[in-house]
Amino acid sequence: MSERNSLTIENIAEYKSEFLAAIAGSKTAVIDLAEIPSVDAAGMQLLGAVAAEAGLVKHDVRFSGTLSEGFLRGVVIAGLVDDSCLTGEDLDSAVKAVIKV
48 Cβ partners below 8 Å, 6+ apart? Predict the structure, then answer.
């Protein structure tokens, strides 16, 4: 499997389409973050927006997978989580706490 693009401003449209299609296609969508090498503020905003959108349409979205070092560094630097957040499941809780889903 080839490495995915970073979840950054340059690739946000690609991920937005993919993530919104996932929540539209399933009452419970699981988005695997394991192969994403890094994230920036725009990517974190997208994760929050996707979680909020899922709530609006009465669907559930769950983030999963072991976070790459670059992805983890991005969310730690932004102050969303500390470095004990190692998986998408940990990040899922943090994102939903921030947006109150």
Answer: 95, 98, 99
Residue owning tokens 């994102």: 95
Q: Give this prediction's pTM.
A: 0.88
Instruction: Quote the CA–CA distance of 91 and 85 in Å, as a whole number.
Output: 6
* pLDDT by residue, tens only, the chain of 101 residues: 346 899 999 999 999 999 999 999 999 999 999 999 999 999 999 999 999 999 999 999 999 999 999 999 998 888 888 777 789 998 888 888 887 75
For the chain, the domains span 9-99
E-assigned strand segments in the chain: 28-32, 60-64
What is the second-level CATH architecture of the domain 9-99? 2-Layer Sandwich (3.30)
Residue partners of 12: CB distance under 8 A and separation at least 6: 42, 43, 46
Nearest to 4 by CA among 54, 62, 61, 70: 70
